[in-house]
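pinging the channel bc i need a second pair of eyes. not urgent but kinda urgent?? the chain im working w is below, pasted from the shared doc
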Amino acid sequence: MNKKIRVILAGTGKFSAEIFEAIIKDSDFEVLSLISQPNRKMDRNKNILTTEVFNLAQKYNIEIFQPLKISEIYDELAKKEFDFFITASFGQFIPSSILKLPKILPLNVHGSLLEKYRGAAPIQYALLNNDIKTGLTLIEMTSKMDAGDMLFKTEININENDTALEIFDRLAKTGADNICKWIKQIFVGDFVRIKQDESKVMLAPKILNDEAELFFSLTKKEALSKIRAFNDQPGAFILYNEKRLKIFRATNMKISTPISLNFADGKLYLIEYQFEGKKRVKHEI
């Protein structure tokens, strides 16, 4: 390729960083800037934990912005000449003024097979609904959330024991394996736009902490779906002997474990769990 493809990338966590690193490493691209949410999280010692995309910027000595609202850096971005503005799990609304800045397109790497699921938690909803496949969709960003034309799509299978963590990791790898090829095809005009069918849209809004609570009145299937979906965040939990018990992994199979829970139609055996104020416990199957 004679001309480098100039891009600005906006994302925050591990999912974003893995996909963005593939772009940074490809010699056909010039990454002008990275944009991340601010470094807000703290560890137990009250030390600020930097975001994965911030760390990526430090690793490759790339300019990094961390605005509370991306509109705050409009002037800085408007001074740059770039072909694509690409987001992946960024976590902020992108105003139309910024979407108009790239010469070619603003793009979003979305973690579902659109039109299913638009919103902040597509992976969690795929697991809650016991889907057998999910994937990535590369879309043109518009002012309406996840509603832009679909440009590329790829699928992965959801295995019986997968939790959100495994799906996030596999989708990140799938994104890293495909993103450069996709953008190069768009750059030379080798792609087809597919409009989303609004009648097929399913929403996946942000998960609230209380939605992760389990009740013994649930069926095993319902409880297990929530445990798998909320493995990473916020963590499924149940009140057990008047104590809050967070459950990261469980199984239908009878295994040797100190804790099994009786749900409406039978037992789940806990593989990985944590009582409030205690260390996380993990049992090998």
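so The mean pLDDT is 94. and The radius of gyration is 21 Å. — does that match what u expected or am i reading it wrong
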